[in-house]
Design goal:
By secondary structure, the protein is mainly alpha-helical. The protein has one domain: Farnesyl Diphosphate Synthase. The N and C termini lie far apart (47 Å).
């Protein structure tokens, strides 16, 4: 039976990481609002395209190192369209570089180069070293650091003030939320990753250890957010509520996984929660 057109479109969006790109714009806007930074318009174009280049490159490497057809639909998509995607990554990457080198200040340029090198080291370690593949590099945490660093990098450069304790608190909570989402997706994709030989926190620990850890992790995150509201002065209440909603959604996926694992919606929902930070613009 042929897959209905809306589902084919949804699959294409996920396989091409378009929802990740759109969510990165929301995360950038969230960071700019928290820091009260005037982000230049070109960065709202360059940053999400840079995110797409990094995510797609990572998926292409994952697809290439496999010596069989991948079970993971994203990796299989990148196997089937490898040459076209490599060409697209090169073209988009050149466009991003042109924007950065023609528009960015020296601090932003240096921060971007540093983040790119960190991303490159991460991908090489995870995919091409025995330590990364067999002894486990905590790649979900590395991805969270890179994603958070990219989201906050521009606003941090363009802000006029040193970040306060309240701002740093929100930033750290955002980082922990990204990390939690990455670990949760790894848990749901345990069987596929194990079959494809992909390293993750789930393949290292197993579901019996990872699930209790994630339960504690998300409950602790929610408790910390309540504590931040009570203790940290001048913290953005709407930002904390948004982060609480994000973590509450992830906790709900963990407690009630069956409806979402069965149809693969867990991954889309995990990415869609990063649209929620844009709600801060309403306050």
């Amino acid at each position: 039976m042929k897959t209905p057109a809306p589902f084919r479109l949804l699959n294409a969006i996920q396989n091409l990481s378009i929802e990740v790109v759109a969510a990165s714009v929301c995360s950038l806007a969230f960071a700019a609002e928290i820091l009260e930074a005037e982000v230049q318009g070109w960065w709202y174009i360059a940053f999400p395209f840079a995110v797409w280049v990094l995510y797609t490159t990572d998926h292409l490497i994952d697809a290439r190192v496999l010596n069989k057809i991948a079970l993971n639909p994203r990796h299989r998509f990148h196997q089937l369209h490898f040459c076209k995607l490599v060409a697209s990554v090169c073209l988009v990457g050149i466009g991003v570089l042109v924007m950065v080198f023609s528009q960015a200040s020296l601090p932003l340029m240096l921060a971007g180069i540093g983040l790119f090198l960190l991303s490159l080291v991460h991908m090489l370690m995870v995919n091409f070293t025995s330590r990364g593949r067999s002894q486990w590099v905590q790649k979900e945490l590395m991805v969270a650091l890179i994603y958070t660093g990219g989201s906050w990098m521009g606003p941090l450069v363009w802000t006029n003030d040193v970040p306060s304790v309240a701002v740093i608190t929100v930033m750290v909570s955002f980082l922990l939320t990204v990390w939690g989402e990455g670990m949760l997706v790894a848990a749901f994709e345990l069987q596929m990753d194990a079959a494809d030989g992909q390293a993750s926190i789930a393949t290292r620990l197993g579901m019996s250890k990872l699930r209790p850890w994630l339960l504690v992790y998300f409950f602790a995150q929610l408790l910390l957010l309540v504590l931040f509201l009570l203790v940290v002065t001048e913290i953005s209440v709407p930002a904390v509520l948004i982060l609480g909603l994000m973590n509450g959604t992830l906790l709900g996926l963990l407690i009630f996984p069956k409806p979402f694992v069965r149809n693969g919606m867990y991954h889309l929902i995990g990415e869609l929660i990063f649209f929620l930070p844009a709600l801060l613009l309403l306050f």
